[in-house]
Design goal:
The chain is α+β, with helices and mostly antiparallel strands and 543 residues long. It is built from 16 helices and 21 strands.
Length: 543
């Protein structure tokens, strides 16, 4: 293409643009709000969009009439814009203005719109101004959004100036605005709690991924519907009536609600519903945040039940006895809140006393339940039986029908006759008790006379021969937690160490001997923690 072609092309374009109908057609296709004025400021052409934006009178108004006819005001919306500051006037002075936001009053009392105007001069061949072109744009909505964000940030303590008038200067503001939006939106999208936004009527507009994870309902299941899809039937009409009355009055709701998942399962949610107001203070939406607290409530319920069970078991393990001529003490230290060790003192019908130390296999709730059953059965049997062997035989029959294959109970039952000063025992697979004779190294072991309880339903247990007791004798009944406690070298505490401990403390009371034995066991443990429940009963024979 030659320079002549270019010149001809320009000439042809100029000739087309000289025709007003062509210019109007082009501007109409571009959908621009454009006003073209001559050098005196008289509008020679106004596009349809310009007439819609500023009114039909824009085409009839002269430059100096624009502020009054069009209702142009400064940013305070009260001061009429001086004619010399209208972008058209500045363009006729030869200035190309940037985007400047002005206020157009719709009537004399209230309301208005923000209009962005840009004007450029039209120059002749010698550089003189022959007219001006003004391009306009309604930016009310953008301005309102920015002002609301500024106000919101201000309430959060983040000081920010009002939105700048110059559009180029708006870019950093928009970037910061988008940063806040991204941060908030990301937080809402990633929270594990359910977030639901409804309109004033309760129609769901938005749910976050946490809602899907909790309820199983996806956006396609709930958008455009009301939260009735979550109703569980656990709350009556009066509950929901009170809820709606509260939030419609502008108050926030906060409480526990039982909802239904898509699967039909019920769950309990800690739910808050907060109203959202527009600039005029009218409630337009509600934001609801639901936290699934089903497991938390179940855990709390279990804690309450465990605390009650522990209180009951502590009462079991707090047994004491006052038997003339004897000093007796017992104690249990459990690995967990609930354990399977058990000791008891049971008065028998013939005036003798039953001494019991037992150990249920395992730990925790299951062991505690077995222990409670064994204790109840044994105390019932002691109401009409005195023979230790017969007691264990009958107890074994009861437990064997109830215990699982991997459960059993070791137990030693000794009948102490305070008048005859004798002791008869039966031992079902339990750690041997020890009798230490006063003033000698003599020892008698109350060894096992049969397998643990609950394994063989037809097992019969027999009682030992009567063991005569003398003043100063000491008896020790233990669980295996005492003997099997290990030190850093994996050496067990053992019977010998327990006997030496008691022999060195003959002069102490039964309670003092017991407390120091427990302290020795804890000190012996490698990490000062008890691996197994530790139970012991000390009996001192008086003079």
């Amino acid at each position: 293409m030659t320079s002549h072609d270019i010149a001809d092309g320009r000439s042809g374009l100029s000739s087309l643009l000289d025709r007003p109908e062509v210019v109007e057609w082009l501007l109409g296709q571009l959908k621009l709000a454009v006003a073209v004025s001559d050098g005196n400021g008289t509008v020679r052409f106004a596009s349809p969009e310009a007439r819609m934006l500023l009114g039909a009178s824009v085409a009839d108004a002269g430059l100096h009439e624009w502020p009054q006819v069009l209702g142009l005001f400064l940013a305070d919306a009260l001061t009429p814009m001086p004619a010399g500051r209208v972008p058209l006037a500045r363009a006729l002075d030869g200035e190309s203005t940037g985007f400047e936001v002005v206020y157009r009053r719709m009537d004399g009392a209230s309301g208005g719109r923000w209009i962005s105007m840009a004007a450029r001069p039209i120059l002749n061949a010698s550089g003189g101004v022959e007219g001006a072109v003004t391009i306009m744009r309604d930016c009310t909505q953008h301005r309102d959004v920015l002002e609301q964000v500024v106000a919101a940030l201000d309430r959060r303590g983040e000081r920010m100036a009002a939105p700048p008038d110059d559009c180029a200067a708006c870019l950093p503001f928009y970037q910061r605005l988008l940063g806040h939006y991204d941060w908030v939106f990301s937080a809402v999208e990633q929270t594990a709690d359910s977030v639901v936004i409804t309109d004033r009527r309760g129609v769901i507009q938005y749910v976050n991924p946490g809602f899907l994870d909790t309820t199983g309902f996806g956006p396609e299941d709930v958008l455009g519907k009301t939260p009735r899809v979550l109703k569980s039937g656990k709350h009556g009409p009066e509950f929901y009536q009170g809820l709606w009355a509260k939030i419609l009055s502008g108050e926030a709701f906060n409480g526990l609600v039982v909802n239904r998942k898509k699967s039909g399962d019920l769950y309990t949610a800690q739910q808050s519903i907060s109203p959202i107001r527009n600039a005029a203070g009218r409630i337009t939406h509600f934001v609801s945040v639901l936290k699934d607290v089903t497991e938390l409530l179940q855990s709390k319920q279990r804690q309450i039940e465990m605390a009650l069970a522990k209180d009951i078991q502590d009462r079991f393990c707090g047994a004491t006895i006052n038997l003339p001529g004897y000093d007796i003490a017992g104690a249990t230290v459990q690995v967990q809140d609930l354990g399977g060790d058990y000791f008891d003192f049971i008065p028998l019908a013939d005036g003798s006393l039953g001494l019991v130390v037992a150990d249920v296999s395992g730990h925790g709730v299951a062991a505690a339940l077995v222990m409670a059953e064994a204790r109840a059965c044994l105390r019932t049997l002691c109401g009409y039986l005195n023979d230790p062997g017969e007691l264990l035989t009958r107890l074994n029959q009861a437990l064997a029908n109830d215990l699982a294959d991997n459960r059993f109970v070791t137990l030693i039952f000794a009948r102490l006759d305070p008048l005859e000063h004798t002791l008869v025992y039966a031992n079902a697979g339990h750690v041997p008790g020890v009798l230490m004779a006063c003033g000698t190294d003599g020892r008698t072991a109350f060894s096992s006379l049969g397998p643990p309880l609950g394994i063989f339903p037809d097992q019969r247990y027999v009682s030992s021969e009567a063991v005569r007791l003398k003043p100063g004798d000491i008896m020790l009944f233990m669980s295996d937690g005492v003997l099997e406690t290990r030190n850093v070298d994996e050496e067990e505490f053992g019977v010998e160490r327990a006997v030496r401990h008691i022999a060195a403390r003959y002069g102490l009371s039964a309670r003092e001997i017991l407390e120091e034995l427990q302290a020795d066991v804890r000190a012996f443990e490698a990490d000062a923690a008890v691996r197994d429940d530790v139970t012991a009963v000390v009996v001192k024979v008086g003079g």
